[in-house]
Amino acid sequence: MGKVYVFDHPLIQHKLTFIRDKRTGTKEFRELVDEVGTLMAFEITRDLPLQEVNVQTPVSEANSKVLAGKKLGLIPILRAGLGMTDGILGLIPTAKVGHVGLYRDPETLQPVEYYVKLPSDIEERELIVIDPMLATGGSANVAIEALKKRGAKQIRLMCLIAAPEGVEAVKEEHPDVDIYLAALDEKLNEKGYIIPGLGDAGDRLYGTK
Ligand code: URA
Q1: Mutual orientation of helices 82-91 and 26-44 as an angle, nearest 10°?
Q2: Interface predicted TM-score (ipTM)
Q3: What separation in Å is there between the alpha carbon of 70 and the centre of ligand 1?
């Protein structure tokens, strides 16, 4: 079963408070989401494998370490996922970035993919799907399925805030996917918003309504 990690680092929790606050304007909101993306990237990469190498320092030889294992791929779900992506790239600049765009079918109300553009070697990469809000889990599940259909083998899901309903939905449909969060909130309301949440992440990032 997929594991759920909630990052309780004080800096992440501090910044998340201002992200939640409705008085925080678009510019500051975007900056804070970007910064939390960087801090979460620091935490999510904690378990990456290392290998030993020798380097010559100016004074002697050193046994040191470099990253080993699979290369990373970032997969923001359009459009709110973009808000965290640059922050993550700040720490992992060599990661490739793929995009998944979804729309809501007006009849079934289910998310449907309309745009998928991925690095050519996704089956060899460890992929991080990025979506700030894990509400019902519908979009994350469709995005993860879109990646698996195209050969992805290792996928993690990174969100700012999740509702328990969304976490359960992803755990059930994709038990191989671990979920990384800054906060696990109380519930969804009748309109599908996370409570207490932060409102609509896309609108707050881009100043739309
Ligand atoms: N998407 C958002 O942007 N906010 C929510 O609360 C739920 C889904």
Answers
A1: 50
A2: 0.96
A3: 32
